[in-house]
Amino acid sequence: MRHFFLGLAPPDVKRGRQAGNKSPLGIPTHHSNHSSLASLRYTYEDGKKTADWLLANTKHRPKVAIICGSGLGGLADLLKDQVVFEYTKIPQFPHSTVAGHAGKLVFGNLSGKPTVVMQGRFHMYEGYPLWKVTFPVRVFSLLGVETLIVTNAAGGLNPEYKVGDIMVIRDHINMPGFAGVNPLVGPNDERFGARFPAMSDAYDRDLRKLAHTVASEMGCSGSLREGVYCSLGGPNYETIAECRFLQRLGADSVGMSTVPEVIVARHCGMRVFGFSLITNKAVLDYETKEKANHAEVLETSRQSARVLEKLVSLMVQRIERNNNVA
Ligand SMILES: O=P(O)(O)O[C@@H]1C[C@H](O)[C@@H](CO)O1
């Protein structure tokens, strides 16, 4: 309050946000009309500020960004010549709150290519609105990133999938989007992208093909699948009825992330590729005693991470500048 009267209000308040309307995570708790809704999100200038801060603090100029799913942050360890930023130190960045998400942004060279890796992502169930969940993707775009690779831990709905399989994401079902929960809701800034972006080609066909080529060269094509990822809000795992419903909808894997990041990346013209690591089988049978749990998810990630890491690094080696695949 005192700061406010002295003209030293924090930036949130200066932009018309009221400190009293925020949860402890800085998330707005109520708003009265569309124009106040418009002010309750990061602007283009906010993204630019964070991107410029990062560019001023590292010499790396990444063309590829990778978002690591639960327990898959080991990918960042493959980067050479690392520059590491804790999320808590990056201006305006949200903070990681989930086990298996370290909360570090790692710049470096992966297979000789300048790359930035998010060791830990943000989820809606942590209490973050989707414009916060997806803020890093817009920052990546402002850094000059052309290709986004997303990874996640997911439950297998397809009865043929086994725990430890890797699923190339061919397409997604945005379940929260059916109810209007979408990171692009609100005023559209054309500097990021068009009001109505297409999503029918969200997952790049050439990169999907490349994944199969690389897997076959690695001798692991037997455990490489390709299918549809369905994103739910979480944090609870699905009921049996929900899993049966999603299976009938045509989903092969189910999780609690990824889709908002992909929508924002496509909105700003980035090329997207994604993997689900099948960490558990979705429960579809009322007679079973099996239950999904995060400890199992992390343990499967730990066991299968090396294959996924190798696959990603070999793919990055073959991604050429300006979106061509070697
Ligand atoms: O960040 P991802 O999507 O990999 O994490 C999955 C979904 C939940 O966050 C968590 C559930 O075990 O793992």
List keywords for this structure.
326 residues, alpha/beta, five-stranded mixed β-barrel, 9 strands, globular, disordered N terminus, binds the ligand O=P(O)(O)O[C@@H]1C[C@H](O)[C@@H](CO)O1
Structure description:
The protein has 326 residues and is α/β, with parallel strands linked by helices. Helix content is 30%, strand content 20%. The chain is built from ten helices and nine strands. The chain has helices spanning 2-5, 11-14, 34-39, 44-57, 130-133, 135-143, 205-218, 240-249, 259-267, 294-318; strands at 64-67, 80-86, 104-110, 113-119, 147-156, 166-174, 224-231, 253-255, 271-281. The chain has a five-stranded mixed beta barrel. Helix 4 packs across helix 6 and helix 7 packs across helix 10. The longest helix has 25 residues, at 294-318. It is globular, with a radius of gyration of 20 Å. The N and C termini lie far apart (58 Å). Mean pLDDT is 89; it is low at 1-34. Ligand LQZ7MJT6 binds at residues 69-70, 98, 121, 123, 152-153, 234, 255-257, 294, 297.
Helices and strands in order:
Blueprint: H1 2-5, H2 11-14, H3 34-39, H4 44-57, E1 64-67, E2 80-86, E3 104-110, E4 113-119, H5 130-133, H6 135-143, E5 147-156, E6 166-174, H7 205-218, E7 224-231, H8 240-249, E8 253-255, H9 259-267, E9 271-281, H10 294-318
Parallel strand pairs: 1-4, 1-5, 5-9, 6-7, 7-8
Antiparallel strand pairs: 2-3, 3-4, 5-8, 6-9
Helix pairs in contact: 4-6, 7-10
